């Protein structure tokens, strides 16, 4: 993601002294690092709670006379709201840079996407105790990762739930352990409520294109058997 983003920023004439608006809820810091490599300053903004992608309203609020570009990341396979972002970019003479997060080793085929979407539909119809991913109106979700939310008191509930799932043989992972704006290299004194909430609640469940119905049902059975939230000490 970093190389492509840096090239797009350079092509747009972004340089020292400019500001570039970027999301903080992403799996790597590569976009922010790409901004830094141009000499520009990354400005972190909040996400939309449904898509988990950069929030156009937050982008509009963050635009200043120094803003030169916006980086919009397709997150976990869900497209950002490019229509709204294109309007903001046009109104403010900004470059709109698009990227995919996490980076993909190869572009999935239409068959692979269709299989993942079918698997996501199966999980979404049967999982309880977690908030399954939604698709924003007019958007497309290719489910490069199947990210649910474990609501409650945030990180302790989610981490306890993850440990219990792993004990039942379900591979799961925290997709964004730390938002980029809280990493030491980019530490910024700002509060992004939806970003913080997502970082404490999100959990990626296994979803691969060739998973059988039995494998999917095993995930459902393991998750639903937990009965929802668990105490932090579990």
How are the elements arranged and paired?
Elements: H1 2-11, E1 19-23, H2 30-37, E2 41-45, H3 56-62, E3 67-75, H4 82-92, E4 95-101, H5 110-126, E5 146-149, H6 155-167, H7 193-201, E6 202-205, H8 213-224
Parallel strand pairs: 1-2, 1-3, 3-4
Antiparallel strand pairs: 5-6
Helix pairs in contact: 1-2, 5-8
Keywords: Aminotransferase, Transferase
Pfam families: DegT_DnrJ_EryC1
Protein name: DegT/DnrJ/EryC1/StrS family aminotransferase
Describe this structure in words.
This protein has 234 residues and is of the alpha/beta class. The chain has 2 domains: 2-101, Aspartate Aminotransferase, domain 2 (3-Layer(aba) Sandwich); 110-224, Aspartate Aminotransferase, domain 1 (Alpha-Beta Complex). The protein is 37% helix and 15% strand. The chain has helices at residues 2-11, 30-37, 56-62, 82-92, 110-126, 155-167, 193-201, 213-224; strands at residues 19-23, 41-45, 67-75, 95-101, 146-149, 202-205. The strands form 2 sheets. A 4-stranded parallel beta sheet has the order 2-1-3-4, with helices on both faces. Helix 1 (2-11) runs parallel beside helix 2 (30-37) and helix 5 (110-126) packs parallel to helix 8. The chain starts with a helix and ends in a 10-residue tail after the last helix. This is DegT/DnrJ/EryC1/StrS family aminotransferase.
């Amino acid at each position: 993601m970093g190389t492509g983003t840096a090239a797009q920023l350079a092509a747009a004439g972004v340089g020292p002294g400019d500001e570039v608006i970027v999301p903080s809820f992403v799996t790597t810091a590569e976009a922010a690092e790409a901004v830094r490599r141009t000499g520009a300053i990354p400005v972190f903004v909040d996400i939309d709670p449904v898509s988990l992608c950069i929030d156009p309203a937050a982008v509009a609020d963050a635009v200043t006379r120094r803003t030169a570009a916006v980086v919009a990341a397709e997150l976990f396979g869900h497209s950002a709201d490019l229509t709204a972002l294109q309007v903001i970019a046009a109104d403010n003479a900004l470059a709109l840079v698009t990227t995919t997060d996490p980076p993909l080793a190869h572009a999935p085929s239409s068959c692979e996407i269709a299989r993942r979407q079918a698997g996501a539909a199966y999980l979404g119809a049967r999982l309880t105790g977690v908030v399954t991913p939604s698709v924003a109106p007019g958007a497309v979700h290719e489910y490069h990762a199947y990210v649910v939310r474990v609501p409650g008191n945030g990180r302790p509930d989610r981490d306890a739930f993850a440990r219990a799932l792993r004990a039942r043989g379900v591979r799961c992972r925290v997709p964004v352990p730390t938002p980029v704006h809280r990493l030491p290299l980019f530490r910024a004194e700002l509060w992004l409520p939806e970003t913080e909430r997502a970082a404490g609640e999100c959990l990626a469940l296994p979803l691969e294109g060739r998973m059988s119905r039995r494998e999917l049902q095993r995930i459902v059975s393991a998750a639903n058997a937990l009965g929802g939230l668990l105490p932090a000490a579990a």
